[in-house]
Design goal:
The complex is a heterodimer of chains A (135) and B (217). Chain A is α+β, with helices and mostly antiparallel strands. Chain A has one domain. Chain A is built from 5 helices and 8 strands, in the order αβαββαβββαβαβ. A 4-stranded mixed sheet of chain A has the order 7-6-5-8. Chain A has a two-stranded antiparallel ribbon with strand order 1-4. Chain A has a two-stranded antiparallel sheet with strand order 2-3. In chain A, a hairpin with a 5-residue loop joins strand 2 and strand 3. The longest helix of chain A is centred in the N-terminal third of the chain and has 16 residues. Chain B contains 5 helices and 2 strands; from the N terminus they run H-H-H-E-E-H-H. Chain B is rod-shaped and about 135 Å long. The longest helix of chain B has 87 residues. Chain B is mainly alpha-helical. Chain B has a single domain, classed as Helix Hairpins (Orthogonal Bundle), CATH 1.10.287.3240. Chain B has a two-stranded antiparallel sheet with strand order 1-2. The chains are: A alpha+beta (135), B mainly alpha (217). The interface between A and B is medium-sized, with 37 and 32 residues.
């Protein structure tokens, strides 16, 4: 029994840990991505994540040039096991999201829910990524 | 239906603590995987919306293009059409890469289709028909649609596979692993309580016997 339970525990832990393996090793700033011919980041699992140029240009139109070195892409959409919404944090990140979703009261953190998330992912499918918060 | 339990487990406090830890982990894993499944389904429907009518558009455009091509072949002859086709240069710049949707690597196709005029295509006007121009124009337009459709359809297939496997994991946790752990925890708690009660009664009995022995002695 112990062997079996250890194995299933290990598998479950592996599953939970592998939820975030698609995240980039290092995010790039909007300015860096605008200068690249083929804007992309490399994930922890070694996969390439390509950004669509049209999306980057769309974000660049929202963020003024002096702040483009501060915004890192992809924007993380945080999903937790205890909360139902999706958390977005960061002033510049929220500036982009709120502009796209036409939301008000965007400070440093905001929870968005499924209907908004759907629109957001439709507008920015490559420049946003889900991150699963394991606590 | 009999409640399923983990077999061969010892009803000890140590085991109870371990099982409670496992249950906590399983519940957390279940919740996260469920979120992943829901997000994947949402992505799937987002892409499904893009595919609506896309295949019909491609079929329609290609039908028009092939009709024009056939007409051009009838008017000009097969050889003349081939000759004209050889002088046409590529008009599409396609860059195939990948992106990751929660671990599912799906293709991203960045393309640029040049809209060319009749002069830019490269063949002469003297020995070619207007139907050839129409065919070329329709083929050029259908390329963008085909690329888009290819990206969408491949993404749909890959996402569907991932949804299926995530759903299976969520169901296994929800219907087998977590209930089994809960039942086992409940069983051990009941066994421990029972053992406590047994101990209590045994002590009572010993006390009573000792008291009786003291009275008779």
């Amino acid at each position: 029994m112990t062997n079996h339970s250890n194995q299933s525990d290990r598998l479950l832990k592996k599953q939970i840990l592998s939820l975030n393996r698609h995240l980039p090793r290092q995010r790039k700033t909007l300015k860096e991505l605008l200068e690249e011919d083929r804007p992309h980041v490399v994930g922890v699992d070694g996969t390439r994540h390509r950004f669509k140029t049209s999306e980057i240009k769309k974000i660049a139109a929202i963020i003024p040039p002096e702040e483009q070195t501060l915004l890192k892409l992809p924007i993380y959409l945080e999903i937790g096991s205890q909360t139902s919404g999706t958390l977005i944090s960061g002033k510049l990140e929220l500036k982009v999201i709120c502009h796209i979703l036409k939301l008000e009261d965007c400070n440093n953190e905001k929870y968005i829910y499924r209907p908004d998330l759907r629109i957001l992912r439709k507008e920015l499918p490559t420049t946003t990524q889900y991150i699963f918060i394991v606590r | 239906m009999a409640q399923e339990m983990i077999e061969g487990i010892n009803p000890t406090r140590m085991e109870l603590l371990k099982l409670k830890q496992r249950e906590k982990l399983a519940v957390k894993g279940h919740s996260l995987l469920k979120e992943k499944r829901n997000a994947l389904i949402m992505e799937f429907f987002n892409i499904l919306e893009r595919v609506k009518g896309s295949r019909e558009n491609v079929t329609e455009k290609l039908k028009e293009a092939y009709d024009d091509l056939t007409a051009a072949q009838i008017i000009m002859g097969d050889l003349a059409v081939r000759k004209a086709a050889l002088s046409v240069k590529e008009s599409v710049q396609l860059d195939i890469d990948s992106r990751s949707v929660m671990g599912v690597v799906v293709p991203v196709m960045d393309y640029e289709v040049q809209k060319r005029t009749i002069v830019q295509r490269g063949y002469g006007f003297m020995d070619t028909s207007v139907k050839l121009d129409d065919a070329a124009k329709n083929f050029e337009e259908s390329i963008a649609l085909i690329i888009e459709l290819g990206e969408i359809e491949k993404t749909i297939i890959l996402l569907a596979g991932e949804i299926e496997s995530t759903k299976r994991r969520v169901n296994a946790l929800e219907h087998i692993i977590i209930p089994r752990l809960k039942n086992t925890v409940k069983y051990i708690e009941m066994r421990l309580e029972e053992m406590d009660r047994e101990n209590f009664v045994r002590l009572k009995m010993i006390k009573k016997t000792m008291e009786m022995e003291a009275t008779h002695g």
